[in-house]
Amino acid sequence: PSAEMITLMWSLIVSIYSIGGLLGSSSAGYLSVRFGRKKAMLLSNIPALLGAALMGLSRLCGSFEMIIAGRLFSGVCGGKLAFLPVYAGEISPKKLRGCINVTSTVFLALGKTVARILGLRELLGSQSLWPMLMASCGLPALVQLVTLPFFPESPPYLLMQKGDQEGCKKAIRQLWGEGQHQAEIDDIMKEKATMKNTKILSVLELVKEPAFRWQLYMIVTLTATIQLCGINAV
Questions:
Q1: How far apart are CA 112 and CA 203, in angstroms?
Q2: Which chain regions cross the lipid bilayer (predicted)?
Q3: Which one has a higher pLDDT value, 49 or 172?
Q4: How deeply is 71 buried, as exposed, middle or buried, from its count of CB atoms within 10 A (0-12, 13-18, 19+)?
Q5: H runs (alpha helix) in the chain
Q6: 108-112, 129-133, 205-209, 229-233 — which is least confidently predicted?
Q7: Is 183's pLDDT higher than 80?
Q8: Contact between residue 84 and residue 29 where contact means Cβ atoms under 8 Å apart
Q9: The pLDDT of residue 231
């Protein structure tokens, strides 16, 4: 192929990850309610493993199309990372919730750092080992697929979405140990009662609602500038 075609293919391989991320994130809310936080996270491993397999076997099959498809599936999995902070926050006790939520960002930055190190030519970034580098993204998904079934479902999800109070108590005991956890259950019940009287807005309704205009401005500003604050470097 010509140099222009190679540039076009490479640009598509790089950018299609974001398209997959858009598809994954747009369905994250529905899947987390439909299947629960835990099952939704388990399902998100399927596109990750599929993408890793396609990219890892692309050279053997002589197909750059497999790399494009693999990047798309990896993007879908990346878009579903919204499950992680929700699940982590809901299973953690109140006094540790802030700390646990921050770890998601820390480990996301750590994953990027490890990927950049593995991508060095002296390691897996060589001409002979790059398929292994691209397939390595399936390893964390495989670990999660094996270990996550041993974790309980989110207690707030069990109580608020399923109405399973006994299942909620069992999950809390499994997560936080034996003890008096009635105060936490009461907090979840209060939140459930509050949500009954709260209208769930669509994205378009949220943008049009004047009452949330300044909060929306603040969130957009923070999200747009977070990459400039050095958190990845930290």
A1: 30
A2: 12-33, 40-60, 66-87, 99-118, 130-151
A3: 49
A4: buried
A5: 3-34, 37-56, 58-61, 64-79, 83-91, 97-118, 130-135, 138-147, 155-160, 165-176, 182-196, 203-208, 213-225
A6: 229-233
A7: no
A8: no
A9: 62
